[in-house]
Design brief:
Strand order of the largest sheet: 3-4-5-10
Shape: globular
Low-confidence stretches: none
Radius of gyration: 19 Å
Largest sheet: 4 strands, parallel
Number of helices: 10
CATH class of one domain: Alpha Beta
CATH superfamily of one domain: NAD(P)-binding Rossmann-like Domain
CATH architecture of one domain: 3-Layer(aba) Sandwich
CATH topology of one domain: Rossmann fold
Distance between the termini: 9 Å
Mean pLDDT: 95
Helix content: 25-40%
Length: 303
């Protein structure tokens, strides 16, 4: 996102506490005079009055661990960044007159009983389980956004993002694509949880960024929740086999117990994104995996 905004001529301020991020990922952006970085935590109340942020016009609130490995390791931090952190960003937007986009998640639907998932589906989420710190915090973050839109007419938009991937994911991220690609390239067993019949819809990062940019730009997205994801659905086993084929790996595919509350099916309805934004993804899973594998293999910077 930062690279896209800078390339468009924007003046970009990146804010991160590096809880899961890595500063070396800023190496390409750091020399650019249109980019600056602040080592801050959005849950800190002082961020609302930070002098460097008083002229912002657009706020992309993307802060939060998104991998179960990381958000389950710090459940209270995950809750705080999506609730208190979201409230602080809304306060900042109200103070500066900025537009705000909140990155919610497909996890707001939980283990869905409706397929594909439309934005008006209220979800099937367990509040008493290991994923709840992320799922429910994102859902409450959406409520904060709704109240600021309703009470203050704030230009706020909520993106429910479905399984974005690219070489930008840490190799130890713990999510499906980073796991499979890293394991295949290192000729280790490719670990599939459950029998691999559960499904996901994977969206390459450039498509996700394009969707978020359109949401920020278009007034039609104000006060709306919009799914941003690829509506092609793959089983986890199909994904593992595709990674194995594209890497030319001799790794074995092994099966392990399914984690608690792991969703069985996941596919977005993107009719609303098409209607309000004129958006749809253009990068196929095979093409996105080829780009990801090449970058992981060669150590080239992520897109």
């Amino acid at each position: 996102m930062a690279k896209r905004l800078v390339s468009e001529g924007g003046q970009v301020i990146g804010v991160d506490n590096l809880a899961t991020g890595r500063k070396d990922r800023l190496a390409e952006l750091a020399p650019n005079p249109h980019f600056s970085y602040l080592d801050l935590d959005v849950t800190d109340a002082g961020i609302v009055n930070h002098p460097a942020l008083q002229d912002v016009r657009e706020i992309y609130h993307l802060a939060s661990a998104a991998s179960p490995r990381f958000y389950q390791a710090d459940p209270f931090g995950t809750i705080a960044v999506n609730t208190t952190g979201t409230h602080n960003m809304l306060k900042l937007a109200l103070k500066t007159g900025a537009k705000l986009l909140f990155s919610s998640t497909s996890e707001a639907y939980g283990d869905p009983l409706v397929h594909p998932q439309r934005e008006d589906y209220r979800g099937n989420v367990n509040t008493w389980g290991p994923r709840a710190c992320y799922d429910e915090a994102k859902r409450l973050g959406e409520v904060y956004c709704y109240e600021y839109w309703r009470r203050h007419a704030l230009r706020v938009k909520v993106a429910r993002i479905f399984n974005t991937y690219s070489a930008g994911l840490r190799t130890d991220d713990g999510r499906v694509i980073s796991n499979f690609v890293t394991q295949a390239l290192e000729e280790r067993n490719i670990t599939v949880y459950g029998d691999g019949s559960q499904t996901r819809s994977f969206c390459y990062v450039t498509d996700t960024v394009s969707g978020l940019r359109l949401m920020m730009e278009k007034d039609e997205a104000n006060g709306e929740i919009i799914n941003i994801g690829n509506d092609r659905e793959y089983t986890i086993l199909q994904t593992a086999e595709l990674v194995k084929r594209l890497t030319g790996s001799s790794s074995a595919i092994t099966f392990h117990p399914l984690p608690a509350d792991d969703p069985v099916r996941r596919r977005p309805s993107i009719e609303k994104a098409a209607r309000l934004l004129g958006w749809k993804p253009s990068v196929s899973l095979e093409e996105g995996l080829r780009r990801t594998i090449e970058a992981y293999r060669n150590g080239t910077p992520p897109e």
